[in-house]
Design brief:
The complex is a heterodimer of chains A (111) and B (112). With 111 residues, chain A is an all-beta fold. Chain A has strands at 4-7, 10-13, 19-25, 31-37, 43-51, 54-57, 64-66, 76-78, 87-94, 101-102, 106-110. Chain B has 112 residues and is mainly beta. Chain B has one helix at 96-99, and strands at residues 9-13, 18-23, 32-38, 45-50, 53-56, 61-64, 70-75, 84-91, 106-111. A 5-stranded mixed beta sheet of chain B has the order 1-9-8-3-4, with no helix packed on it.
């Protein structure tokens, strides 16, 4: 099992550009999550999904969108990138909300 | 939403037992306590989860008193590789999206 994979590992965006962060899991988990982590801080939940076709907002959803068309994939879309979105983004999945398996992260810089 | 409070940092030496305490005074009846570990440049990793009394696995033990207003993660005989940030989370699965908040955590430094 590859677990949770995220692409790209690193990305630099210019202000106003858009991009999609990819997340795929091969553990057949129903629950998937997107977090962002700013330097020296804890993780903040952006969006989550409890199954294909079902998504909901977390603590900091503004400026992001998600979709969940399959069990395996949970892409995160950034529209009109801003410097405040510079962060490390983690995708996670799990059978329950308690035990989540995290991907390696995507380090995004917006300049 | 149960707020948690942990020490910002702790130091220990190799071979010692480390206890990290988390306060959660307004924990709700359906809430569970979960601990994660995060190494630099990696995503967090689940360590242990409990509801009351004591839970033990191959990595750690979790002690929860009867009033459940706090919990203590115990790491036996730490090594340099246990240097990481440890997060305490409190919530219930019915509100998974909103309840699980990763605060700043406790930065554990294990010294030789």
């Amino acid at each position: 099992n590859a677990g949770v994979t995220q692409t790209p590992k690193f990305r630099i965006l210019k202000i106003g550009q858009s991009m999609t962060l990819q997340c795929t899991q091969d553990m057949n988990h129903n629950y998937m999550y997107w977090y962002r982590q700013d330097p020296g801080m804890g993780l903040k939940l952006i969006y989550y999904s409890v199954g294909a076709g079902i998504t909901d907002k977390g603590e900091v959803p503004n400026g992001y969108n998600v979709s969940r068309s399959t069990t395996e994939d949970f892409p995160l879309r950034l529209e009109l990138a801003a410097p405040s979105q510079t962060s490390v983004y983690f995708c996670a999945s799990g059978d329950s909300a308690y035990e989540q398996y995290f991907g390696p992260g995507t380090r995004l810089t917006v300049t | 939403l149960a707020k948690t409070t942990q020490p910002i940092s702790m130091d220990s030496y190799e071979g010692q037992e480390v206890n990290i305490t988390c306060s959660h005074n307004n924990i709700a009846t359906n809430d569970y306590i979960t601990w994660y570990q995060q190494f630099p440049s990696q995503g967090p990793r689940f360590i242990i989860q409990g509801y009351k009394t004591k839970v033990t696995n191959e990595v750690a033990s979790l002690f929860i008193p009867a009033d459940r207003k706090s919990s203590t993660l115990s790491l036996p005989r730490v090594s340099l590789s246990d240097t990481a940030v440890y997060y305490c989370l409190v919530g219930d699965a019915d509100n998974y999206g909103q309840n699980f908040v990763f605060g700043p955590g406790t930065r554990l430094s294990v010294l030789p």
